[in-house]
Design goal:
Layout lengths: L1 E11 L7 E8 L2 E5 L8 E6 L4 E4 L1 E6 L1 H7 L3 E2 L6 H13 L7 E6 L1 H4 L5 H8 L4 E5 L4 E4 L1 H6 L13 E5 L5 E7 L3 H7 L4 H17 L2 E9 L10 H10 L6 E6 L5 E2 L5 E2 L13 E3 L2 E4 L28 H13 L4 E5 L2 H17 L8 E4 L8 H6 L3 E3 L3 H14 L11 H5 L18 H10 L16 H7 L2 H6 L17 E4 L16 E6 L2 E4 L6 E4 L2
Parallel strand pairs: 1-4, 1-5, 6-13, 7-8, 8-9, 13-14, 14-17, 18-19, 19-20, 20-21
Antiparallel strand pairs: 1-2, 2-3, 4-25, 5-22, 9-10, 10-12, 11-12, 15-16, 22-23, 23-24
Helix pairs in contact: 1-7, 2-4, 7-8, 9-10, 14-15
């Protein structure tokens, strides 16, 4: 007897030999067959889909789950359209807090506001409390005088980390804007977060994720650097799982700062743990390395100056340090996920990968370039030769595409967040969001952006890079599984695959592009168990 049969569904299997199915059988958390392969078999639970669309579970190949979960308890500044509105929100939150409590907000947009929050205004709004507002890109933050003082910036005792920027006005006074690695000066005041608090953040995020059809996510940086929240961050995921509150599968990217020398020239985590350690529900993935900043903050490392200010961005560290970090990780058996947005950072990353494979060959390792936002035509064949997985975020085009256009000019737009050209070159492109950076992380919204590539102002960026809705769905299913080296176990609806499935009220590959993100998620299954929407399903028969 099977555990579950889903019948009367319109299954988009993502399999070339059988693209459609109407019945799916599950046993022991795995798909055992479809249609005639399960005909005549009984099951403990039978769900009548009523003609709803069934797809493999969605995966997000690059997100920040803890950070997103924490942000759900912070002031959401994404809707602010004026500084008065922002300061008012800060003041109202501050008035409800103890006199020494931190006022923390997320996702303000300097492009919409016309600049960054004023330090003195934040002082007034906070009423003497520390105020910390995180930019939507996560590559910048604005703080008030209290935090500048605590961090040692006002009295000059702070040491700004390599790759960090403390903005100063014409008189040399800090404005309160901190970019890239300089944010570690604030982090040092609040980290590490308690594991209990991080586990609660994981649980909050998981509820949102399964409601959007997500069944697998890659957490892009834990344990160290400005992206991590605690040296024991993995323990928070374990705690949430132990409590039954981690309802999605998670791959964790340790930040490069967590690695240390082992034996000989090897680097890694204690006990020699490296990429692949764990199980199908929670495991260690690639090592995360930042090689530059972001386009929205003009800290991405570019070869030609940004429009207007003539800047070239910043590298995440000394080029030789970054090169050695990538080389050491490769030699030590790690998969590497290098954050590289500007084309200069991508050059550095590709050079390091080439040297690593030349000196310590590891065929099929599947290193990744996170974001791969500005890929020049001459860089494409290098990506292919090294079998690199590019991990772009199409949603950025909608949320901050107008800002990127202003920063780069028309000439470099064809390089932005490529998709079609990656596929035509033979690369796989996984779907991802970088949530909570920039905007929504809902997979169906990401699919729409892959198809449309339209900014919030209605400008189409690099129309030739558009893909159709089937390819967009493939990005969030089969290609995301490939990026994690798990294409043999998830991403398709066929025998042997994990029974991670999403039941939808319409077909995202058949509706108009503008309606893709309006398709509703009826239910989400992980290992054959309904983790979202189970109470609203129609059960044809259920065992007592």
């Amino acid at each position: 007897m099977l555990d579950l049969i889903l019948r009367d569904v319109r299954a988009l299997t993502m399999c070339e030999d059988r693209p459609r199915a109407h019945t799916v059988g599950v046993l022991g958390g795995r798909i055992v067959g479809v249609d005639e392969e399960v005909e005549g078999l009984s099951a403990r639970t039978v769900v009548d889909g009523g003609g709803a669309v069934l797809t493999p579970g969605f995966a997000d190949a690059h997100n920040h789950m803890v950070w997103y979960g924490l942000s759900l308890a912070e002031i959401d500044l994404s809707g602010c359209r004026s500084f008065d509105e922002l300061y008012d929100m800060v003041a109202r939150r501050a008035a409800r807090l103890p006199s020494d409590a931190w006022v923390i907000g997320s996702r303000y947009d300097d492009f919409v506001l016309g600049g960054h929050p004023d330090r003195a205004a934040l002082d007034r709004a906070g009423g003497g409390r520390p105020v910390w507002l995180k930019h939507r890109s996560a590559h910048m933050c604005s703080v008030n005088s209290v935090i500048l003082g605590l961090a040692g910036i006002l009295d000059g005792t702070a040491t700004v980390p390599e790759g960090g920027v403390v903005e100063r006005d014409a008189s040399g006074e800090p404005t309160g804007l901190l970019a890239e690695q300089a944010q570690q000066l604030v982090d040092a005041l609040v980290k590490p977060y308690p594991v209990e608090e991080l586990a609660e953040a994981v649980a909050r995020a998981a509820k949102v994720y399964v409601a959007e059809g997500l069944t697998h996510v890659t957490e892009a940086g834990v344990g160290g650097g400005w992206i991590g929240h605690s040296p024991a961050e993995a323990a928070a995921y374990q705690l949430a799982r132990q409590r039954g509150e981690l309802t999605v599968r998670v791959e964790l990217m340790p930040a490069a700062e967590t690695l240390h020398p082992l034996v000989g020239d090897l680097v890694g985590l204690d006990l020699g743990i490296r990429s692949g350690f764990g199980d199908d529900f929670l495991r260690v993935g690639p090592m995360k390395i930042f090689t530059d900043g972001a386009l929205s903050s003009r800290t991405a490392a570019v070869t030609e100056p940004f429009e207007g200010d003539g800047g070239l961005g910043v590298l995440g560290d000394d080029p030789e340090v970054l090169r050695k970090r990538i080389l050491d990780a490769h030699r030590s058996g790690w998969r590497v996920a290098a954050h590289a947005i500007g084309d200069r950072a991508i050059d550095l990353t590709l050079d390091a990968f080439e040297q690593a494979q030349r000196e310590f060959p590891r065929p099929g390792v599947r290193h990744r370039i996170e974001h791969a936002a500005m890929v020049r035509p001459d860089q494409l064949p290098r990506l292919v030769a090294l079998d690199i997985v590019p991990v772009p975020q199409a949603r950025f085009l909608y949320e901050i595409g107008d800002t990127m256009l202003k920063s780069l000019g028309e000439g470099r737009v064809p390089w932005l967040y490529r998709h079609r050209s990656f596929l035509d070159a033979g690369l796989r492109v996984p779907g991802s969001s970088d949530r909570p950076c920039v905007g929504t992380g809902a997979p169906l919204a990401g699919m729409r952006n892959m198809v449309e590539r339209t900014t919030s102002a209605g400008v189409v960026l690099a129309e030739d890079e558009r893909v159709d809705a089937v390819e967009a769905l493939r990005a969030f299913t089969t290609h995301a599984a490939y990026a994690a080296g798990q294409e043999d176990r998830r991403g398709r609806i066929t025998a042997g695959m994990q029974a991670d499935l999403v039941l939808l009220d319409d077909d995202p590959t058949a509706v108009p592009a503008s309606s893709i993100d309006s398709v509703g998620v009826l239910a989400t299954f992980v290992a054959g168990e309904a983790v979202h929407g189970g109470e609203s399903l129609t059960y044809a028969e259920r065992a007592d």
